[in-house]
Every structure is written in structure tokens, then in C-alpha cells.
Amino acid sequence: MKRLNNKELKEIKGGSSSLTSSMINYIGDLIDILISAGRKLGSSIRRIGSGNACPLD
Predict the structure, then answer these.
(1) 21-47 burial, b if ≥16 CB within 10 A, otherwise e?
(2) CA-to-CA distance for 18 and 16, rounded, in angstroms?
(3) How far is CA 28 from CA 3, 13, 16, 35, 46, in A?
(4) How far apart are CA 31 and CA 40, in angstroms?
(5) pTM, full prediction
(6) Interatomic CA distance for residues 22 and 28, integer angstroms
(7) Cα Dmax for the chain
(8) How far apart are CA 22 and CA 26, in angstroms?
(9) Are 21 and 27 in contact (CB under 8 A)?
(10) Would you say residue 16 has pLDDT above 70?
(11) In the 3-class helix/strand/coil scheme, how is the chain assigned residue by residue?
(12) In this predicted structure, what is the pLDDT of residue 17?
């Protein structure tokens, strides 16, 4: 086994920097959740503003 000096050790690159399918799937699901939450929040604001909110009695 060859011993590496400090300069060679600093140049070692490892790991995966590319996106995996599970990461892409997670990002897609996160975007769907954020869009859904935004629609629900906007709908709630619109209904409260127009006075069409259901009573909480």
C-alpha cells in the first residue's frame, strides 16, 4: 500500500454528488406538500376576508 503525502490526501474526492432517485422523489413530494398548503392557506384567507367562513359553534 502506497503512503500518501498531505498534498495527495487533500486532493482525494469521494462520495456521490449526483441526485439519487429517492432524493428527486422527496423533492417532488415536498413541492406537492408546499403547493397544497399554499392553496389551503390562500383559500382560508379568501373565505375569512369575504365572510364565508364556517362558524366554530
Answers:
(1) eeeeeeeeeeeeeeeeeeeeeeeeeee
(2) 6
(3) 45, 29, 20, 11, 27
(4) 14
(5) 0.57
(6) 10
(7) 77
(8) 6
(9) no
(10) no
(11) CCCCCHHHHHCCCCCCCCCCHHHHHHHHHHHHHHHHHHHHHHHHHHHHHHCCCCCCC
(12) 65
In which residue are the cell numbers 359553534 written?
57
More confident residue, 51 or 15: 51
pLDDT > 90? residue 1 = no
The pLDDT value recorded for residue 40 is 94
Under 8 Å CB-to-CB from 9, ≥6 apart: which residues? none
Cell numbers found for residue 1:
500500500
